[in-house]
Amino acid sequence: MKGIKQPTEEFSRVPAGLRIDRPPFPKSAKLEVTSRCDLNCFFCQHTYDTQKSGDIEPALLSRLLRELRELGVEDLGLFWIGEPLLNGALNEHIAEAKALSFPYVFITTNGRLATEECLEPLFEAGLDSIKFSFNADDAESYRPRYAGSTVSTKPWKISDVPGY
Ligand code: SF4
Questions:
Q1: What is the CATH number of the domain that holds 122?
Q2: Which of 10, 26, 60, 94 has the most crowded CB, counting CB atoms within 10 A?
Q3: How far is the CA of 8 from the centre of ligand 1 (A)?
């Protein structure tokens, strides 16, 4: 007869070597540099959050960056729920992370502020990757999902991204 844990173990994708009391610290982490956003997407926690939004304290970010690097983190996302391009110190945060030798620093953005003037300093600071988040097939489905946005007046083009 199967024990109560057996089905879980059979279907778990966690390698056996990691199912220990103190598994190794993750190689990947994300730090939310701002909880502010310029949109109110219906599917997002940000839209329903009643707490005050704001940017991370630079001193706290510095401490977290140091500690995460010492713990062996390699892939660092400088965003979580908010829109990272709203943080005016983002290029400084990226430069600080690269100075601590994080091999891969990336962001995900809704893209509304992604002009060439905005993106160029981020890549100069050492940004390795940027991802654009769209959860719609076309303008018709984009507008109601991304409340507060418009498609036709989006100020950026993919060719604004350095290297394209
Ligand atoms: S753009 Fe991103 S962070 Fe902002 S409300 Fe939409 S899903 Fe949330």
A1: 3.20.20.70
A2: 94
A3: 34
